[in-house]
Design a protein that fits this description.
There is one protein chain. By secondary structure, the protein is mainly beta. The protein folds into three domains: about 80 residues, Immunoglobulin-like; about 80 residues, Immunoglobulin-like (Sandwich), CATH 2.60.40.10; about 80 residues, Sandwich (Immunoglobulin-like), CATH 2.60.40. The protein is built from one helix and 21 strands. The strands form six sheets. Strands 4-3-6-7 form a four-stranded antiparallel sheet, with no helix packed on it. It has a four-stranded antiparallel sheet with strand order 11-10-13-14, with no helix packed on it. The protein has a four-stranded antiparallel sheet with strand order 18-17-20-21, with no helix packed on it. A hairpin with a 2-residue loop joins strand 1 and strand 2. The longest helix is centred in the N-terminal third of the chain and has 27 residues. It is extended, with a radius of gyration of 33 Å. The termini are far apart. Bound molecules: calcium ion (CA) (3 copies). The site of one calcium ion has 8 residues, from loops.
């Protein structure tokens, strides 16, 4: 072997080493081996809104996996291993049948094969929500604000609120509300009842009586002008027009009792309480001018928000 060959060999080895150093860390970081398949998925218990599952866990060359249990009503749950059991709840509904499987994933995104599937039927929900507890959170001359709560074994509870025996809110998930406009210095009685997914109704809450305050004769400050009045491009050839705005604020009234007077071409079309959108009809195929004015409980009027827009967009 001559010196020249040895030098060339040494150079080639150096180049190969450099190439190996460049390549090796990358290939070491890329894990292409999926976790083993989780097996023997089985149901170990149920309630109306949950299923207890167990399985024989996956292993992976990286040493760690995350699991996904799939799927009920397009919902799933993903959680880190190690784990061989889980109380699963996402998307489950009492009295219905579901089929679930579990799959493992490593940190490099390799998925195992899916486990066996399990099919089960949850028991019906026969436990009603508890009697709602109601509290008064705010009172004004023309409104009463309430909050309420109820304990339920499932994920969903819907409330109905009555005022003087009339339903003023029905089947809502909300746990608070503002009711108005009301008469000043007048007593109103409220009740709240809860209903669960299974159709079980709670006892009706204890009635709560609230007397509104005297009207504020010193309030001479109008609400702010409704903000950013727009039709969002929804003014149609036949004159149907959708209006959207940002709700006004007032020094006395909460937003939910501010009244909005809606005008089309200078004529009062209708009023609404506490909203941020409406639909009305202008003249077909021409430009129309719409105005929204906010009015507080003392009758103070905001400056008008004004929008002039073409019914049909391009036809005017
Ligand atoms: Ca792996
Ligand atoms: Ca229930
Ligand atoms: Ca005011």
């Amino acid at each position: 072997m001559n010196i020249r060959f040895l030098t060339r060999l040494s150079t080639m080895v150096t180049i190969l080493l450099v190439m190996a150093m460049m390549v090796t860390p990358v290939s070491a970081a890329k894990d292409r081996t999926p976790p083993t398949t989780p097996t023997n998925l089985r149901v170990t218990g149920m309630t109306a809104y949950s299923v207890s599952l167990a399985w024989n866990p996956s292993t992976d060359n990286s040493g760690s996996v995350t699991y996904t249990i799939c799927c009920a009503n397009v919902s799933s749950e993903t959680f880190p291993g190690p784990a061989s059991s889980r109380v699963y709840r996402a998307g489950l509904e009492a009295g219905r049948s579901f089929t679930l499987f579990i799959v493992a994933k490593d940190a490099s995104g390799n998925y195992s094969r899916q486990s066996n599937s399990v099919t089960f039927t949850l028991p019906r929900d026969t436990t009603p929500p508890t009697k709602p507890v109601v509290s008064v959170t705010d009172v004004g001359p023309t409104h009463v604000s309430l909050a309420w709560s109820s304990v339920e074994d499932g994920p969903g509870v819907w409330f109905t609120v009555t005022m003087n025996g009339n339903t003023v809110m029905s089947g809502q998930r909300d746990t608070s509300g503002t009711f108005g406009p009301l008469q000043p210095e007048t007593t109103y009685t409220f009740t709240v009842q809860a209903r669960d997914f299974g159709g079980n109704s709670s006892p009706v809450s204890d009635p709560v009586s609230v007397t509104t305050e005297a009207s504020d004769t010193t309030d001479t400050t109008p609400p702010t002008m409704p903000g950013n009045l727009t039709d969002n491009g929804m003014s149609f050839q036949d004159g149907e027009t959708w209006l959207f705005w940002q709700q006004s604020t007032d020094n006395v009234d909460p937003q939910s009792v501010i009244r909005y007077d809606v005008y089309a071409n200078g004529v009062l079309d209708h009023s609404l309480i506490g909203g941020d959108r409406t639909i009305l009809y202008g003249n077909p195929g021409v430009f129309n001018t719409y105005q929204v004015i906010a009015v507080d409980a003392a009758g103070n009027q905001s400056a008008p928000a004004t929008l002039t827009t073409c019914a049909g967009g391009y036809g005017c």
